[in-house]
Write a structure and sequence with these properties.
By secondary structure, the protein is of the alpha/beta class. It is built from 21 helices and 10 strands.
Amino acid sequence: MKNKEDCWNYIIEKLKENEDVSPLILNTFFKSSTPVELTDNKLTIVTPIDVYKTHIKKHTLEVEGYLSEYTGNDSKIEILLESEYKNPDRNKKNVTPEVNPSGLNPDFTFDEFVTGKSNDYAYALSVSVASDPGGDEGSNPLFMYGGVGLGKTHLIHAIGNYILSQHPDYKIKYIDCLTFTEDFIASIRNKQQSSFKNIFRNLDVLLMDDVQSLSNRESVQDEFFTIFNRMISQKKQIVMCSDRRPQEIPDLADRLSSRMAQGLTADLKFPDFDTRVAILSKKCKKKNISVPNDVLEFIADSSQSNIREMLGHLNKIFSFSKFTNMKIDLDLARESLKDSLNNGKPQLTIDYIVKTTAEFYKLTPDNLLSDTRVKEIKNARQVAMYLCRKHLNDSLSNIGKKFGKNHTTVSHSCDRVQERLEKEPIFSMELKNIENNF
């Protein structure tokens, strides 16, 4: 009689030769599953959590092909959770966890995340952390970094949503760094520091987005360092996202930078062409809208730096088709995006530069166009003015009108940015990252 372990090992060896199954997916999901029963026409395997089950099911066709080779029969695979295998009646009970004031977006889940070579390491680490929050000292904290619109925020929410689904009683908090900063400053101003501290004192999981905003904020860094140390010592999970590595965040205390990097670090890169098409295809299926593959490829090819922008192009095509009552095809796609694309690149305008600069610094266009002299906003405004001057054939006066400033202020801003470019390598990298979105 054929052996179930030998059968499963045979399938895994075959999957190693399959280019559609990355080594990371194989090692994370397949090798963590256990064969429990083999008959002439069925292999039953058990997985620890439903995320593993979902990913193995994506490769059902290949697995059943190799299984049939091994058994010599037309065989099927059955995938069970450990809870289903040990207690078959358990999953019949439909329990809806209470709403947790976590700040999580329920739409961002692991199932909705499209993986590829650009992000599969970050994805696998996220699944691992979500499966055992705080359980592995080497995985705490998890620090993910990458450019705008590459999936960091999706993954950090997915981690929280999965933990909440498995542990409804856990206290989970998602917060972006600017909100954390504003709340901390407000607590000092209103003499409510104890209330602020209580929010973070009993957390099981802290998910902090955009931690690069801790730059040059000494008192906020001190407060976060205290929270960080307490949670790590209590084996509570911390996950952070940033647009750069901890050591590249300017004016960040060395003690905090080293603590951020003490666990696992993963970067997310811009997805390759095939992954971009897969992301678009998944979005179409979710909306139940049929879009020809040549249209998806056109959108993917026209979007070379930002997934949010790419999905915005797709939504624009949806809207154009709906309001013109026309079928989606390549001609309609080109027509609907003609004002957004210029030879496959966004059309550069003052508004577009302001929007792109604001997005990079996690601000809004209104922030940049306001009169506020908050240092963070003022610096971003100067960058936007500099980029307008550099990339547009426009006068200082016209640029100034958009920002509500005179030509002298624009000139001074451009000079100030140029000085920083010559002295600050990290600032120079920031501008290159913004320009990559042009």
